[in-house]
Every structure is written in C-alpha cells, then in structure tokens.
Design brief:
Length: about 120
C-alpha cells in the first residue's frame, strides 16, 4: 500500500505506516501546502496512493465526481494523534486492504469503521 498523509494529520504517521511496510509520504514533503483537496486527490490517483485525512471534503468530492479512485481514509475523532489512533488505524487498514486497493471510502471513529465502495452514489 501507498499512503498519502494529508496536511491536517501529523507527519509522525509516515514512520508508523513505513514500519508496517507501507510506502507513505506527508503532503508537506511533496506538494504545495496551499493545494486544493481536488488537487491532492488528483495527485493521489495519478500516483496510486490512498489519502489519509481528517477532512470531510474528500468524501464529498468523491461523491460529487463519482470517481472510482483514489481510496480515502477519513478519521472522525477529536484526537487524531498517532498515540491515540495507531492501533485502530492499522487494524482497519489491514482488515480492509483489499477494499483499499479496489477503491473505497473508509470513515473511522472511535466506535467503528464504515466502508463504502467507490464510486459513491450521490
């Protein structure tokens, strides 16, 4: 898996994903910090990355465009620190690896993870 970490999440996630053997990069290291969410999605799709974010806009864009990729993982908790979420995020990603490869939107909160296959219905 290749994971693109959005600006609203800590760069510490890079090391966490790399320890699992997943290629990962924080947007601040490769792109313009002022890039639009659509631009970030386009880069992720063109480079076969999954977007890992705390931003609701990515799901809305996928719904409005009916795109079948890239996959997006949205974290919906107040505390998005790696120390709080590492175990949960890794477990969901391992469990849903095939769906992430095929194209999906996964929304994760403290209680559950919801998976929707792309393209999303409007």
């Amino acid at each position: 898996m290749k994971v693109l970490i959005d600006m609203n999440l800590s760069p510490q996630w890079v090391e966490i994903f790399q320890r699992k053997g997943w290629e990962s990069v924080h947007w601040s290291n490769i792109g313009n910090p002022q890039a639009t969410d659509r631009g970030i999605l386009r880069w992720a799709k063109d480079n076969s990355y999954i977007v890992f974010t705390h931003d609701l806009d990515f799901g809305a864009i996928l719904a409005s465009t009916r795109e079948d990729s890239p996959s997006v993982i949205q974290v919906r908790t107040q505390d998005v620190s790696p120390g709080n979420l590492e175990g949960l995020i890794i477990a969901v990603m391992e469990q849903q690896e095939k769906r992430l490869e095929e194209g999906s939107l996964i929304v994760i909160d403290q209680a559950k993870a919801r998976v929707r296959i792309l393209p999303l219905n409007p």
